[in-house]
Specification:
The protein is of the alpha+beta class and about 220 residues long. It has one domain: Jelly Rolls, CATH 2.60.120. About 40% of the residues lie in helices and about 20% in strands. The strands form 2 sheets. A 5-stranded antiparallel β-sheet has the order 1-2-9-4-7. It has a 4-stranded antiparallel β-sheet with strand order 3-8-5-6. The chain is globular and about 55 Å long.
């Protein structure tokens, strides 16, 4: 095995090193989401390829290879796509629709049948082209936040196993996926750092001005 092949196999094993808890189809169907099948002809969504940060560097041919490795799902308005604290090995790429992202408030209990707006703090509203859930996809750790559909939604699911297979079978596409995931995580970290800095600045005591002169 040459050095390049060894590197490819090593990257694939690293990505696929955490065993999934259950199949992605079982998980999606248990959540009430409609599983359509492979996300074919991703290149036909020209606006998505142009506007999605995740897809911008993919050629139409590469986008189709990526799409074949993904599973297309549909959700109705109000359905939960990702539940906080669930352990999963996949991420989502929004194809159409709008998704709310929220973090459970302190001491609030998760109730999927309740009003999520009352028990969660909104973190973001995401639209077509956005990627979400990549952290848990890579490390298999529990989800940090919940995501639910604000409108009818179409999304493509990318699993850790699919990324590992892309690295092995289509190294150029697999490498681009890894680069995009790295960029996403770096941007998330930068945004979190900036928010923390602003929060600390707001909490810092204000320096008092000079008092009135005394004679």
């Amino acid at each position: 095995m040459n050095d390049r092949a060894a590197a490819v196999n090593g990257a694939a094993q690293l990505v696929d090193g955490v065993a999934p808890r259950r199949s992605v189809r079982e998980e999606l169907e248990a959540a009430g989401l409609e599983v359509v099948g492979p996300c074919e002809r991703l290149s036909a969504r020209r606006d998505l390829l142009r506007e999605s940060v995740f897809l911008q560097d993919f050629t139409p041919e590469e986008a189709d290879v990526l799409g074949e490795a993904m599973v297309q799902i549909r959700a109705r308005a109000g359905q939960v796509l990702i539940a906080e604290d669930d352990a999963s090995d996949w991420m989502l790429l929004l194809l159409s629709g709008t998704v709310d992202v929220g973090k459970r408030k302190v001491d609030a209990e998760y109730n999927p049948d309740g009003d999520l707006n009352e028990t969660t703090t909104r973190l973001a509203v995401l639209r077509a082209g956005a990627a979400l859930g990549e952290m848990s996809m890579l490390d298999g750790e529990p989800r940090y936040a919940s995501c639910w559909a604000l409108s009818d939604v179409e999304a493509a699911v990318l699993t850790r196993g699919a990324v590992a297979k892309l690295i092995t079978d289509n190294p150029a596409v697999g490498a681009k996926v890894l680069v995009k995931l790295t960029q996403l995580l770096a941007q998330r970290l930068r945004n979190t750092s900036n928010q923390l800095i602003r929060h600390l600045a707001d909490k810092a005591p204000r320096a008092s001005g000079p008092g009135p002169e005394t004679v």
